[in-house]
Design goal:
The chain is an alpha/beta fold and 459 residues long. It contains twelve helices and 29 strands. The chain has two domains: 238 residues, Rossmann fold (3-Layer(aba) Sandwich), CATH 3.40.50.300; 196 residues, 3-Layer(aba) Sandwich (Rossmann fold), CATH 3.40.50.880. The longest helix is centred in the middle third of the chain and has 15 residues.
Length: 459
Amino acid sequence: MSKGLIISAPSSGSGKTIVTLGIMRALKNRGVDIRPAKTGPDYIDSSYLAKAAGRKTLNLDSFAMGKNQLLGLASTYEGAGNKSDELLIVEGVMGLFDGAAVSRVTNVDHFPVGQGSSADLAIKMGLPVIIVVNCSSMAQSIGAIIYGFANFSKDINITGVILNLVGSKKHEMMLRDALLPLGIEVLGAIYRDDGLNIKSRHLGLILPNEIDDAEGLIIKAAKIVEKSLNLDRLIELSSSIKKAKPTSYLAPLGQHIAIAKDKAFAFIYEHFLLGWKEAGAQVSFFSPLANQAPDETADAVFLLGGYPELFGQELANADIFMAGLIKAKERDALIYGECGGFMVLGEALVDAKGVAHKMSGLLPITSTINKPKRVLGYRYLSHKSPLPWAENLVGHEFHYSSCSSNNLSPLFEATDAKGDKLPAMGAVNKNVMGSYAHVISAQQIKSAQLAYGEEKNEC
């Protein structure tokens, strides 16, 4: 039976992504069978984890997925669960207890754990937590921080601490001394290194295929981790993963699904492909940036989310791609776009410089990048559209654009994580449809919840 653990932190900016990349590659170099996973609806970190581990990354989302689906995915993807030396390493999201929402309850005898948080995932999957701490501006205070995190919830098992961004040997000793009374193992100390940084942009980290030497960065992180951490002990601190059958796969969009995938269209969940393969659907890929059209035998076309706003002129000039979309519409193939893909289905895309680029024109909308305005949050979605999915779904939004109003039927009725009603989303024009939502799974349990940082959508 395979084992697993979660690598989390007190907050974003602690360096857990770089540390996790180093751990995965260092263990892979030792011959450990690493299974990479990411907490929540994150496409970008997942691409780095896949590069470090040498295999595709699973998104485990405890807000959108139930316990059986989480355990089922962890048990089965890419042959998982069949070897005794497999190790599922899950990179957390934000701080350990930070999630999209918590139940609206009173008179509780425990502190709330954010739904969709790393802690929520750890509880549902029964996984221990290794916590990475940014020590750059503290010394003895680390004891109070780790004491608080270890005792915040009786259901969380913090089994190890990684000291990150340590300044000196003296600094490391002060940190270790402060943690001695807690009885939680320090797995090692990683010293500050300005060469271990990944550049960011408006939606998060720069994708690894856009960095000149992403592989070199991972190699360097692995070397530092190998000499700085007790990796044997880290493996020993993992726990067995309970086996389960995967549930709630979303039905294939068609029998042959042509998926747009390149630097402009980059975001898809691995559990989609797993479910569609399980259902016997054929999947093919094409690159709009290379001016490729979807396969003419495909009865469904999926335009992924990504960064079309960075490639407006290239897409506008991709005549073969655009003609292929029109031909797919004319043969009644289902055409579905999420976020960036939805934008490309419109008539025009106005980039951050105010330049308008002609798009496919299959939906009567114009999308505009209007940073710094941001729309972010989980969404409960319902629909009565040609999408062959459950009527009630869970998805997520994260974008800096808005789209003009249209006279078409919306694709989704939507609420935020709390259940408060939002404006209807997206558009449907016969067999062409899309919205800003990235769908994650079929809806399972919906309850009144308290949302953090939800914002209204305009389209």
